[in-house]
Amino acid sequence: MAATDKKHIPPRWAEKLLEWYCPAESLEEVQGDLQELYIYWVDTHGKSEANRCYIWCAFRLARPFQQKQPIRSHLQPNTFGMISHYLKIALRNTSRQKAFSFINISGLALGLACSLLIGLYVQDEYSYDRHWTNSGRIFRLNQTSRFEQEQKASTVALPAGPAIARSVTGVEAVTRLFIRSGSIQILANQGQKARLFQEREVAMVDSSFFKVFSLPLLYGNPATALNTPASVVISREMAQKYFGDSNPMGKVLRYENIADLTITGVFADLPRNTDFTFDFLVNFDILFAVEQPSIAEFMQKDWLYNPAEIFLKLSPASSTAQVEAQFPKLLEQSGDDRVKAHIQYYLQALPEVHLYSGELIGVPSRGSIQFVVLLSAIAGLTLLVACFNYINLNTAQALRRAKEVGLRKTLGAARSQLVGQFMGEAFLQSILAFCLAILLAYILLPFLNELGDKQYVFPDFLHPQLLLFATALLVLTALLSGAYPALFTSGFLPVVALRGKISQAVSNKQRLRQVLVIVQFSVTLVLITATIVIYQQVSYLRNKPLGFQKEQVVVIPLFGSGNSVNISQGVDGPFRMRMNTFEQALSQNIRIQGSTALSAMPGSGYLRSLVVPEGYTEQSNIFVSWVSVDYDFLPTLHIPFLAGRNFSKETGTDHLQAFVINESAARTFGYASAEEAVGRPIQRGGEGGKKGIIIGVVNDFNFNSLDQPMEPLIIDIEVPRFGVFAVTIASDHIPETLAQLKEQWEAFFPERVFEYTFLDENLDAQYNRQEKLSRLLSVFSGLSILISCLGLFGLAAYITYQRSHEIGIRKVLGASTGSLVALLSRDFIRLVLLANLIAIPLGWYLLHQWLETFANRISLQPWVFIGVGVCTLLIAFLTVSSQTFKASAMNPVKTIRRE
Amino acid sequence: MKRVYLGEFEELVLLTTAILQEEAYGVTITQEIEEQTGRIVDFSTVHTTLKRLEEKGFLSSQMGGATAERGGRRKRFFSLTTTGVQALHEIQQVRTRLWSQVPATIQLKGI
Lengths: 899, 111
Prior knowledge:
Chain A: Keywords: Cell membrane, Membrane, Transmembrane, Transmembrane helix. Chain A has 32 helices and 22 strands. Chain A is an alpha+beta fold.
């Protein structure tokens, strides 16, 4: 430097730049050369020109890719080598600590598998009916009715459909959808015998159906397929069933033995994730053709009777608010003051129909947002419990790694590197757990299918959304379970760590571990209690006396399926005659105890009808559930009378003007006692409705599902309403009796397929959802307690190991094994006790909320909570004491000498 | 034998190195080229060319002693390898042979 005076110093930053990128081995000469040139430039061109030249050259020399093989100095870190080193350390650690690794990985795997399965379920539930072209523009018309109470329904009146098409602007297409079951007859052609089928899913739709729903047709033209009432579009599955592989176009089906329908199209099978389940699409007018003219007229004009769904496809420019604003005017078209005053329409987006229709009456929705939320919560909690295990065990294990951390730090490892290393280990274990979880999920898939009524197959996991979810889950799990231990472990001061004084630092973290254990066990406890309470509630519902005989009752669907024409010829019509002789024939059979026809079986929910008892007017708007039965219904199901008498054929006029009501109805109508109600006049329906007198009062029986409260009910005889046939049979020789029943049925009703169910099975089916929930919860609470105990086991094993020295000394000084076990278990037991204190009020509150949704419910019993608490304590104690006992039984010489 | 490929500038640097003999390093080579050809030569271009020629095996280099004027930094001296000398010779031969075949008339016109 001596020779270079101040003006010969080049710009410092340019020099720095050179130093930064110039390969180390040529830096010296380049800097030298440039320095020499700089002096020359300063002398010949002046300082500023020299600066410019220097900077220019410095930049020009920066050609990062010029050097093909950079020669590394041995001082630069060997990244690849370090990674493989970390990997090796991680694998060694994993394999050395077999028990811990097993607990960590299996716990995580269980949690992840749950999340994956539930993720699949949730993703599927959310995908419902989003696949239709422009499904964002399709809406269902729902109605809110406010009579004595507010009620929302997914179904609306039939005339609303054409009225919307006529007068609501901003609607591109509208279709009604009304699913009924019915008999389908394949007409004999080519000399074959006609075959008869009973089909459950015949959908009546408007010809604009295909304008709303982009259902692809394999055969036929969607624009014209349903234009005439004599056309039918069938599913590919039905085409296969009826006609095999031959082209079904133009073939004729006979519907309800009344209408001949020509097949004008075949649609591809509906996707799995849709709420639509129809196999046949027929023109809506068929409904009116098969009904009695008076009923058909009523259906077409009445705006209170709401049997059908209506779907609207809005035009791209219009908004829901715009369309909804026109509904009051639409309802005015009904010309019915009650409709105008009490009914409102609103739109529900098609993709929301599946999950958000729980409170709507009408077409039952198969999905439930509560179920989805609950399941997601359970999955999240299970995963959380597993992550807590990981955090707990790894923090506890930190001691073992302390020396390693100290050594690494002494050798110059930065904290970030250590965090990276430990996070990497967490990722490695998470990935292992993930692989295991996929395997587990694969094994458990059939189970989920059974619980959720789904047909998932393995490739469903490969759904992009789900893969994204799974990856996010993996990263989240690794971060959640790895971050804390990594930060904690890497934070040791090397001096402290190497001296082996870390145990103090670890025990300072005791608090956190305790909190995690408490949270873990609280979650588990709530899950277990919920399982028990839900199970109790479901079995309570199933076994509660309903007020009628439900065992050995065979239910045969009759005529409610649209062909009431057959029976509507009146009380003495030919069909009624045929039924009477059939019943007579049945009564010959000693194993058949009774038979009756009625509109719908108890438990299936009844139509509500306007009722005007004595002292009220039509304007009182009393709507009461109503069932139409035959003379022998009440005795057949053993429903007892409080007062009055049953319908009697002898009276002669009972089918025209007699009513039986239940106890609740008598109370609602303001009668002081059942006896007082008998003989009072009553009217069902509005103006011109059926008038009569109350001839009897029966005990309340549960005609609704038990999750609804007991309601008033009126009963009368209205033959055209009959929809089912009920037969009570003796409890022995059931298969033979059924066979005889079938034989006789076929002799009397050759045009109808004999199908039957048992009433008690039907009733049980109502609680399927609750039962599903109960089974699902039992699985998850089992898993949860397994994971929690795994964690506790690991923790106990570790703490015991840590305190083995102390145990040895205590033993030498004369402590008994029992006292040692007590000493060591005490801490853990205290934690589980604390968890109990949190879980009991929380569980009590949550379960109380859930039970509130049932009209008939069990009361929460304290012993359930106490029992669960004691059991959990016991399990925890066994888990912990298995370790502590081992430690305290050891020869103290060994443990003391070890240090 | 593998054919030798030398760019025009590479040939220039190689020749200059040969001329300068013991004194051939980055600065002198740059200055010599400027002096001999009159064209402005960038140091960085010379530097990278020297590197490239060394990689190709036409040049070898060794570090010299430190000099005060460079802030105590050493110089890297370049010298031709046998391959380098051979390459230069070959180029010269090819050129001469080619020139000898060019008709006289064109030679005059060309000038």
